[in-house]
Amino acid sequence: MLNVRSFLVTLGDSFYYKRLEEELSGMESVLDVGCGDSSPLARIKKKFRSVGIDVFEPSIRKSKKNKIHDEYTVGDILKIDTFFNPKSFDAVIALDVIEHFKRNDALKLIASMERIAKKKVLIATPHGFTKQSAYDDNPYQEHKSGWGVSDFKKMGYRTRGMRGFKFIRGGEGGANILYKPWIVWGVISALSAPVVYYIPQIASQLVVVKDK
């Protein structure tokens, strides 16, 4: 049973990682904002130089140990303009990051990312507000804002859906399968990934991109 569950989780995640890899194809440099300790970049074929920045030093130490990025910076990502010059990276990404900030702070972060990026900005975030408290002694894990398709369309982003149907998932962090039997709904969630990609309004996660 555990192996089947792991397979379904991997299957569901594979669509997300494949799309991420495609979006970053052709990039020579990528800045991973709020990289945490286990960036999704570790799960794709990385053909570019990457730099990770995060305010939580234990996360940086763990990521360094796993050699996910080529370089690291410990610092407040709301002040990334002070660490990196305009147009200094081909792509700037923030994967499951902006929901950890109040809306005004997140909008300022997005504006800074757009200044630093030469070619592309990519953001992944839960669709809508999902409650999450701090954990692992990391106060920055709390969720403080929620985001919808219209928020990003107004800012000129291409919006795609990920992680299957939104109604299936919820709970702390918004990622748990809500219904039983888990395997049945896990299959439905995994198989719905290609559907919600084109209909982000019904997706549990959003991946948005602005080409420059």
TrEMBL record:
Q: What is this protein called?
A: Methyltransferase type 11 domain-containing protein
Give the species.
Candidatus Gottesmanbacteria bacterium RIFCSPHIGHO2_01_FULL_46_14
Single GO MF descriptor: S-adenosylmethionine-dependent methyltransferase activity
Span of domain Methyltransferase type: 31-120
- Extract the InterPro entries matched here: Methyltransf_11, SAM-dependent_MTases_sf
